[in-house]
Design brief:
Elements lengths: L1 E6 L3 H17 L5 E6 L17
C-alpha cells in the first residue's frame, strides 16, 4: 500500500489532492492508497488567511 501525505488543505493542497486522485484513477495500478491531509485551520479549503465570518 502506498502512503501519501499532503500538508495544508488550502487551495493548493486541495488541488494536489484532486490531481492525485485523478492520476491514480487513470493509472489503475495502485489498488490501495492511504492519503493523509494535514490542516491546522478550522476552515479547510480556504486556509488560514480567510475568515468565513468577516463582512
Amino acid at each position: 500500500m502506498r502512503r501519501i501525505a499532503i500538508i495544508g488543505g488550502g487551495l493548493r493542497g486541495s488541488s494536489a489532492l484532486e490531481d492525485l486522485f485523478i492520476e491514480l484513477t487513470l493509472q489503475e495500478k495502485e489498488k490501495e492508497v492511504l492519503v493523509s491531509l494535514f490542516e491546522t485551520s478550522e476552515n479547510p479549503g480556504s486556509g488560514n488567511v480567510w475568515n468565513t465570518e468577516q463582512l
